[in-house]
Amino acid sequence: MKITFWGAARQVSGSMVLLEFDDEYKVLIDCGTDLERENNPEKPKLAYGIFPFDPSLINLVILTHAHIDHSGQIPNLYKEGFEGQVLCTKPTMDLSELLLLDSASLNQRKFKLIHDSKKRSKKRKDVDSRELYLERQVKEAMDNFVPIAFDQRFKFKDDGYVTFIPAGHLLGAAHVYIEFWEEGQKKTLGFSGDIGRKNYPLLIDPQPLPPVDYLITETTYGDRHHIDQDEAENILAGIIQKACIDVPGRLIIPSFSVGRTQAMLYTLNKLYTEKGFTPIKVFTDSPLAKASSRVYEKSVKLLNKHARTFHEENESLFDFENLIYLESNQASKAVSNHSEPCIIISASGMVQGGRVEHHIEANISNPYATILMVGYASEGTLGWKLLNGERKELSIRGQKFPVNATILRIDVFSGHGDFKDLTNFVAAQDINKVKKVFLVHGEHLTMQNFKLTLEQKGYQQIEIPDKGQTYEI
């Protein structure tokens, strides 16, 4: 078999790994959007349309989870000639449809900008129309998704089996375990996908992979420890007390609509239901978050024991007094005039586009406002600037604003496992069995540090693939 790393190689996003078996059967694990290239259009374009390989020659896609940096290019794969199926878990299928349709809606707006710029005889260098798919391409792709249950050994070719193992991180997220035979010899390969963390709100803990010959693992937090050690309810309660009760202010929380927002709404529901916390008005400003919450509600059996018990006792994971979903842009903007203490949860988590930009703009100079960052933000985004100390003055949509709001950060809602979680994941592998470990989905320096850690633990043959690098196993 040949393994080629076409994405998330020495960078965090764009997960895409090509497996070429000896019988010429080709499997793509993940087909994600390269967010680094999206934010840097000067990077070189690829050979086959927007892909570095011929999509028509791919037989199968195996999808670890729904996040766009793992699923976002699947409609384009079909647009460029792929005719096979996409295997994933049922929640991954449902959440992928929501996220891909949301991307298609954004693409529709980008097409309009391209059209308008042509009318004005101006070229838009930041948008490549070949990468823009629309709703019809999403629907075509979704018709070919095949849901597979966790821990079910599924035969995908005559001498090949795949099993999805719970990874935590996001509803439906999976590690991938592949068994195959070449020249009469059984071989095994494991791919971590994104590794979750223990005791995360709603989600079950990540499960270990069986012993494998070859391991591909993410390294996002391969040199970092999570800072927050207390329970999510206690941390969030303390922040709300200071931001909205001790001082009658407002709390703005930039958050990803899928996964992160559900964890926070569930935590707020527990605060109000179990701990007698006064229900402050909560505005959830994302139609995508509302739709995603419905997927979580219908997938309760796949959540952790605490969430299942809570749902059984309260009939809902997310609905509570004073929770308001904002549907329209007009309703979103009207919240800026809301005079009472409130919490606004809005996308996107990196404060890069989305309705949250308006809320930050309207509140960044308000000394009675608190902006709470709850996750990772890529360099160059407004979220990154908020997290990295540029706080005297900020430029938002071309206008400069003094920063008078309080800026806070917590990582208790981060869906990624940290250094300890990642080392425990690899440590489940037998040093004497695993022949090679590939590190992906992380910053290059983080990968180098994580490699040193694994070598100190006795693991050999650790590779940090470059983009496009091929290995024979």
Automatic annotation (TrEMBL):
Task: Show the SUPFAM superfamilies listed in the entry.
Answer: Metallo-hydrolase/oxidoreductase
Task: Domain (Beta-Casp): give its ranges.
Answer: 261-386
Query: Is Hydrolase one of the keywords?
Result: yes
Q: Which SMART domains match?
A: Beta-Casp (SM01027), Lactamase_B (SM00849)
Which InterPro entries would you find in this protein's record? Answer: Beta_Casp, MBL, Metallo-B-lactamas, RibonucZ/Hydroxyglut_hydro, RMMBL
* Record keyword Hydrolase present: yes
UniProt KW keywords? Hydrolase
Q: Which GO terms describe its molecular function?
A: hydrolase activity; RNA endonuclease activity
Q: Residue ranges of the Metallo-beta-lactamase domain?
A: 13-239
Pfam family for this entry, one: RMMBL
Signal peptide start-end: none
Q: What is this protein called?
A: MBL fold metallo-hydrolase
